[in-house]
Records
---
Amino acid sequence: MIDLPVFQHKKVLLTGHTGFKGAWLAIWLDMLGAEVVGLALDPLHEDGVFAKSQIGKRIKDYRCDIRDLGKVREIVADEQPEVVFHLAAQPLVLEGYAQPLDTFAVNTMGTANILEAIRQTPSVRAGVMVTTDKCYENKEWVFGYRESDPMGGHDPYSASKGAAELVISSYRRSFFSAPGKAAIASARSGNVIGGGDWADFRLVPDVIRAAQTNQPLEVRYPDATRPWQHVLEPLSGYLLLASKLLEEPNRYAGAWNFGPLPTQVYSVRQVVDAFLQYLGKGEWRDISDPAHHHEAGLLMLEISKAIHELGWKPVLQFQEMIQLTAAWYARYATGDVLQLCQEQIAQYRELWRSRNGN
Ligand SMILES: NC(=O)c1ccc[n+]([C@@H]2O[C@H](COP(=O)([O-])OP(=O)(O)OC[C@H]3O[C@@H](n4cnc5c(N)ncnc54)[C@H](O)[C@@H]3O)[C@@H](O)[C@H]2O)c1
């Protein structure tokens, strides 16, 4: 199942390919033999996966703002993709507080623009639209959110993604339900960690930056639990979902959660401690302050639907996720980063085969 031969020679449009998750997905799709067309803004980090791996040389690399419907439509019409993965977004909660209008414009209307371009391009057979676990109205429940739970969002980032989900659902029901139309799904996953993320205000990049500069790490919410996952876990879910959408569009169109198992939910404190132990140096300081902007305390995803209907299941144990991530940061400065990413994807696929079968 994880071999995914369906992508061989498929034309795949990938938005957000210059970002953290998108660059990993571009490398994986390239390994699967897909013809990848990327659409995004310039990469923000010179040590990120996109720049360091130089994957841009192996794929078609468009720079385009998804707020520009005319340009998006032109690229999609020129390229005639069969599959679309939409990952481009303003993905940060704190940036959402600083730039709420831009966040809504990119995340909500940008998603509408991609859907509109798909609607006008009959070559597209499947679309996976990536949102987030934060699209749910967070009720601080101790149990996980199901795909059928209401959308919501307190802060602008979460609300922009909840609103994107409503747009996706509306487009699916209004324009993509007839036979022969593209099958559209949305994918919700939790906080992702992995090599090559350098975003501000994210935990792992903060740990690495603190270790590189020998500063103590300042932690705002040490006891907040998050559904941490290695980046390759949700990406395997997006790929599997797209392959199923191609096979049986009616059955798989809809919303899907891709989170860790309930036993694999860890606090910020546990992630930081595990990382520092692996790195063998560094320390952290608790700077919790009730005056900080609101951030959701507890957030878990219910993943039974993906397990039972898609045959997807998380593969990595907590220590393996930390080890893979730390190994990337240990090697990126001196090694061949494309090869490093390909090795980690191959390693993940082997673990998938041995634990999830085929
Ligand atoms: N990283 C996480 O922990 C996490 C968790 C849940 C969901 N997500 C979602 O996954 C997706 C990818 O996140 P990421 O962590 O890789 O983010 P990232 O910031 O590393 O990458 C974002 C990508 O979007 C592109 N982009 C941003 N604004 C754009 C615009 N106006 N026009 C065109 N392209 C634009 C950037 O150029 C980049 O390629 C996002 O949709 C995000 O909301 C991420």
---
Amino acid sequence: MLKEIVKKNRSYRSFDGNHAIGRETLLDLVDCARYTPSSVNLQPFQYFISCTPETNETIFPLTAWARLLPNYDGPAEGHHPTGYIVVCTDKNIGPNTDRFRTDVGIVSQTIMLAATEKGLGGCMIGNFDKEKMAAALKLPENLVPSLVLALGKPDEEITLLDLEKGGDSKYFRKDGRHFVPKRKLEDIILGD
Ligand SMILES: Cc1cc2nc3c(=O)[nH]c(=O)nc-3n(C[C@H](O)[C@H](O)[C@H](O)COP(=O)(O)O)c2cc1C
């Protein structure tokens, strides 16, 4: 079952703009992240949640989508994410926030999997200007926005493909559908 959720949990970039996500839903997603492992158990994160159209539209213009696709602008009007969780790293807990990059991944993937289980989907967005995002969200000085988790009810289809050894791993769009090549099991296993 977990494997099915992992496979369903793709990076979606088009959403039903009319499907609101409630604050309680976002709180429950963060509650899942709260139980994840954490290096030295420092738990250096706070989470900015957004589910109102106003705050969502403050965040959206600061996010960049699918940089591998030059002719694609990301979610079209009416298909924007309807919620966000911005994972913020607390410099008061560790001044070198790079140290927590693995932890960012762990909490973020946990949130995305929990969202998938709820019938939602989304995309991790690392391509944004941290200073502009911190200013737009009026974050206190000690918090650095590390990763944006854009969420919504996906309304696009994504197909996973087997990537031939040495082949091109670039994702692509064809006839409005999105394809994502993944390396084969036999090509990534080492040892016995
Ligand atoms: C740390 C991280 C940052 C990412 N940043 C972006 C981003 O800024 N914009 C975007 O459109 N996708 C972003 N993605 C999504 C990747 O492009 C996506 O994971 C990849 O194309 C594979 O597709 P899949 O998630 O469906 O397997 C990011 C993914 C990760 C893990």
---
Amino acid sequence: MNNDIEEIKSKLNIVDILGEYIRLDKAGANFRALCPFHNEKSPSFMVNEEKQFWHCFGCQKSGDIFGFVMEMEGVEFREALKTLAEKAGVKLQSYSPEKTEEKNRTLEILELATKFYEVQLWKGEGKEKILNYLHERGLKDETIKEFRLGYAPSGWRNVLDFLVKRGYKTEEINKTGLLVQKTKSNEQRTINNNENKNSNIDHWSLSLDNCYDRFRDRIIFPISDYSGKVLGYTARVTPGSDESQAKYVNSPETEMYHKSRILYGLDRAKSEIKKQDSVLLVEGQMDVIASHQANIKNTVAVSGTALTPDQIAIIKRYTKNIQMFFDMDSAGENATKKSVKLCLASGMTVRIVSLEQGKDAADIASENPEKLQENVAKALPAVEYFFQKNFQKFDKNKVEDKKKITAELLDIILDLENEVEKNYWIKKLSEDLGVSESALTDELKKTSLKGKNTKDSGPREDIKKIGPTTKKEMLIWEMIGLMLVSSFVWKKACDEAKTRKIFLSDNLLQLMLEKGEQVNFDFTALSNEISTNRELSEKMQNLFSRKKYQLDLNNNLEEIVIEDPWKEFQACEREMEREEKKEELNRIGNDLKLAEERKDEEAKKFLREQSDKISKELAKLMEL
Ligand SMILES: [Zn+2]
């Protein structure tokens, strides 16, 4: 691992790498730039080529190429390592080579297919059929190119033949989701659906392969991950063609493409999201593209109807502030409301952008880009928005309506993560409605109980449950998570606990250290053992799935080398020691104040010595 890092560093120049993201100007021995991590008008971001190091005098962030990519892409170290290894042409020792090779082939195929569709749009059949339509929708050529829109021609084997000719095997192509595998029944169905239209059927049904192109005669929207690698597609039916077809056909879930983890446009929007410390969530691909063209570049969309917890976790790497379009009268109201609630529950700040009825962001952006910007600037905090709307919609002087307003608003307030904020809105609701606060609090309790019993409450409860309250608790939970996913770490921690003090303030950690050997350091075994203790087993399950998810988010579990979780565990331990020292320093500080009040010279002297000693220890720990 360390060799990898050194090799990568030796092969890459910080000026080239950072230059891919930001504009660097030579300033004496250094390079200077506008800091990408905070908003500024005059450059305070410096790059030192000799030391291969960057530093911002504005926000005090600094680091090497790895730190920069982590910060810029909002990714963990491992992901940054992968990205830079690729750039440096370094093969990482710790990865399983076959798996990586297979993934690379899949990405290669998707990239080639995307190019194929692009060529079909600009030079092939799509030029006549599609370009006009896209222009009519207000898209400029440069925008169409930026988002790599394409056209999948009609016919059964266009992309398939193209890729096979370039040496890819059908099974390899099939892994990308570009093909549909023929089965008896869908063969029949496809023929029936298309027999009047398609002349290629003979060719297709006689072919040796039992696969054909998934996307035929459709506008192609490539869907990329945060780094711009194409993982899948959404394909819109060609305007004016057979109306009985589905308007949109999407790539299926593949080993690499997971809809619930993709935010459309993130690769183009991420740096702007960071800079503005805010993301704008719109409904569809066209909305994203039109907004970017209208110079609102912090825009992304989800591929389903509502945000998933995975997507929220990804957004939170870049910002905690989200702006959403919301139309109270639209059919999508419930889905959007669900997204709002989920964001509030995970501690994000949500603002709502109002839209005129029946219009989407793309319409407004193409009619009048400034108007869209105006609307976004006027966005209201979510709770305030729902207050306004509900008080407009219902008559607060009627008892029935009072109930409705209460139900609607408590449903939102319940999700707020911050208790102070929660209290504020309850107070406001009580004033606006002329109902006592205690009546509302009672009602809130009922709502929250009801929420627990319905499936609809979603992962809100989980998110709350797994939120640690102190830094120490967070660290302990990290450590537990690491032990649960890696029996190697679990065993090591137990060995260590025999010889030195390990942090026993947590009941689950204590239990795991005691019972580790007995259950053979196995998550399932301990899980069975403590299944009767609901609180404890739920906590364990939560920490286990959270850690697994965290690791899996950036990597497949099989790629994780055994030393890494252990290193992470040790880093947590060190951080924990630092926290304890800091706490000790605080305690001594308080005692010192008291001693000063008492004018107790002897105590003062002793406490100062103690404080110096611990400060030095802390300084040493900080260096590690
Ligand atoms: Zn800065």
